[in-house]
Amino acid sequence: MTQDQARFAEDFLPPDEQDTATMRRARATDTTEGRMFTVTGGDWEDLLADNEFEHDERIIINMGPQHPSTHGVLRLILELEGETVVQARSVIGYLHTGIEKSCEYRTWTQGVTFVTRADYLSPAFNEAVYCMAVEKLLAIEVPERAQVIRVLLMELTRITSHLVALATGGMELGALTGMTAGFREREEGLHLMEFLTGLRMNMAFIRPGGVAQDLPENATERIAAFIKIMEERLPEYDKLLTGQPIWKARTVGVGLLPLEGCMQLGITGPILRSAGLPWDLRKTMPYCGYETYDFEVPTLTEGDCYARFLLRLAEIHESLKIMKQCNERLRQPGPVMVGDPKIGWPAQLSIGSDGMGNSLEYIRKIMGQSMESLIHHFKLVTEGFHVPAGQAYVGIENPRGELGCHVVSGGGTRPWRVHLRDPGFVNLQAMPAMSEGSMIADVVAAVASIDPVMGGVDR
Amino acid sequence: MTTPSGTGPAAQPDRTSVDTPAEKPSGTTTDATPQGGAHAGDVARPEQALHHPSSPVPTTGLERTGMFGAHGSGDTSGYGLLISEPYTPAPAERPYGGWFDEVADALLAAMHERSIPPLALLQTTVANGEITFYIHRDFLTVMLWAIRDDESLRFELASSISGVDYGEGVPKRLHVVYELTSMTYRRRIRLEVAVDVDDAHVPSAVAVYPTADWHEREIWDMFGIVFSGHPGLTRILMPDDWLGHPQRKDYPLGGIPVEYKGAEIAAPDQRRSYS
């Protein structure tokens, strides 16, 4: 190394000591895109001490993909003039797991297990929308009780998902108590989910034709207890955040997206409703019997991060209202899976001495009494059911907006194509419109208010 | 002899030996002649659609053989010789029912008003309570403008745009499917454009629906369909330097055999399939 090229104090060290020193220092490298500075493991001081460093105010910063305030593995490329964001672009794909392609190699029922892992904060919605699309192709009606259970699980999931949105959003803006409170309440919701379905997340409980099995005994008591706890604790969020001056300073008027911008960018969910359009598929294009429930669609007109926060909080209250009505309807017993033995999953699970498995009566029936039942069980479990050829699209309202599922069947026992229209994927396109021209700290608030879940965005 | 349609791409090159007609060079979209609903009776029969080079909507899917779905084992039942013909969406007959007629009439009127030739609308299909308009590729953008802006249509929201690959051996195997929502009238329709794999170009919808930006990038990434006029058609889910388009049917799923208690379980796309 010649004296001209030497830029750092380490360059003057003996060669054997240089290596360890280089690993620690901040570096400047010349690339085709201009000079690139890397300070990982080093210090800005090194760069600033360097005479060649031009004090250029315009820099491009890569925020993410591993950054605590970008909501998972989201990478933001920000072009800054001082602290003002001139251009912002998001890079996604870091969590692409090929869920859609994997579905093509499993039976229709197994597909539920894949799609539930897409948007991992709202698994019940992924399962429901996929099953509703399959049921549309099969032209079957799901029993009333299964519909009620689906609505119950979806609203419970909406509450837990909104709580995470408040919690992580609060954390990213420095309201750490918001995070601990949000995760504390979410834990209550996940405990209830575990009691009802057997798993906290990714339950694969909703199946084509209904739900995997009926809710356990005491379900209504546990649901009522959860609603009671939530109603006691939700006012704390108002005390903690709604009127808090710092929270308002960080969110009011920040991340603005007016209605025309939302319409152009195809935005749905709380972001659209914060801009003034009361568009909620539960009301506008009802499914699962939502038209028979009494609830409101909260809407505001400010179109900023604060309005979105208020809407999420209000929607938790509305979801609790729906859960109460579900709880009433659950008193009516009934089947939870279609009666057609060519489609409905045959077994009912129960707890035995060696853990959970097929119930003893069922085993007795297929092994000792009915050869046909055994054949049906074997065919359904290994081969699955055939779905008539064609395609279907179903859209439902998940916590982030319209979650759509487009399925294509070639007539076989496996999906030909499954596509999830994830609202996080579409809504994330609004990030530049919300944050260009604002301060870098407001980008964090804007992304938090979009509430993207990368599992759903990247699928 | 044949492989099941879902067995996986590794086994699929055999498909060409089956007597499904291979893609004809004349099968490109630009050669499609106007048919509309006028040809209704003919197109409904799959074999006609297959052997008709200018059929507006080609088959969507492969023929399936056998009754029990299992292949590769000695079949002495005779059911293995059964052949189910590939599925072709049938054109709908008037009346379509519900508000479908209203939308179809409004669409025809809007096309007339904007001097879009009738051949732009290749076929209308009603199935599963949904209406699908098959659109000629060259007229996609003008049709989208009409569908979005016409007062009696007003499909303001492009809910979802997705690609479908109907597999090797199917003419015009790549489809782009537009799910459009009218917030004014609370209706959903579907538009579909089919292109050849050798000429996978579709005009971009970004000018009409800016939300199409990422959808189209995803379809380019996953299916290799080029959207002409897109402001920046780059990969979105896969790395920039990735080769191939993973959701094509001839792209392998991947995966490795797993050993479990001494036995080996093949990768998902290599296992015996029943479909």
Give the biggest sheet of chain A. Answer: 3 strands, antiparallel
Sheet-strand content of chain B, in percent, reads 15-25%
Overall radius of gyration of chain A: 26 Å
The CATH first-level class of the largest domain in chain A comes to Mainly Alpha
Q: What's the overall average pLDDT of chain B, rounded?
A: 76
Show the largest interface: A-B, 52 and 54 residues
Examine the coordinates and then state which fold CATH places here, giving the name of the CATH topology of chain B: Beta Polymerase, domain 2
Q: Strand tally of chain A, please?
A: 12
EC number (chain B): 7.1.1.-
Pfam families (chain B): Complex1_30kDa (PF00329)
InterPro entries (chain B): NADH_DH_suC, NADH_quin_OxRdtase_su_C/D-like, NADH_UbQ_OxRdtase_30kDa_su
Family (chain B): Belongs to the complex I 30 kDa subunit family.
List the defining traits of the structure above.
heterodimer, A: 459 residues, alpha+beta, Cytochrome-c3 Hydrogenase, chain B, three-stranded antiparallel β-sheet, 19 helices, 12 strands, 47% helix, B: 275 residues, Beta Polymerase, domain 2, five-stranded mixed β-sheet, two-stranded antiparallel sheet, 5 helices, disordered N terminus
Topology:
The complex is a heterodimer of chains A (459) and B (275).
Chain A: H1 15-24, E1 27-31, E2 34-38, H2 44-49, E3 58-63, E4 75-81, E5 84-91, H3 99-103, H4 111-115, H5 123-138, H6 144-172, H7 176-197, E6 206-207, E7 210-211, H8 219-242, H9 245-251, H10 259-265, H11 270-274, H12 281-284, H13 305-329, E8 349-352, E9 355-358, H14 360-369, H15 371-383, E10 390-398, E11 401-409, E12 415-421, H16 423-427, H17 431-435, H18 440-450, H19 454-458
Antiparallel strand pairs in A: 1-2, 3-4, 4-5, 6-7, 8-9, 10-11, 11-12
Helix pairs in contact in A: 5-6, 6-7, 6-13, 6-18, 7-8, 8-13, 13-18, 14-15
Chain B: H1 40-43, H2 46-51, E1 64-65, E2 83-84, H3 100-113, E3 121-127, E4 130-135, H4 140-149, E5 157-165, E6 174-182, E7 187-195, E8 201-203, H5 212-223, E9 226-228, E10 258-260, E11 263-265
Parallel strand pairs in B: 4-7, 8-9
Antiparallel strand pairs in B: 1-2, 3-4, 5-6, 6-7, 10-11
Domain NADH:ubiquinone oxidoreductase 30kDa subunit (chain B): 134-255
Subcellular location (chain B): Cell membrane
GO molecular function (chain B): NADH dehydrogenase (quinone) (non-electrogenic) activity; NADH dehydrogenase (ubiquinone) activity; quinone binding
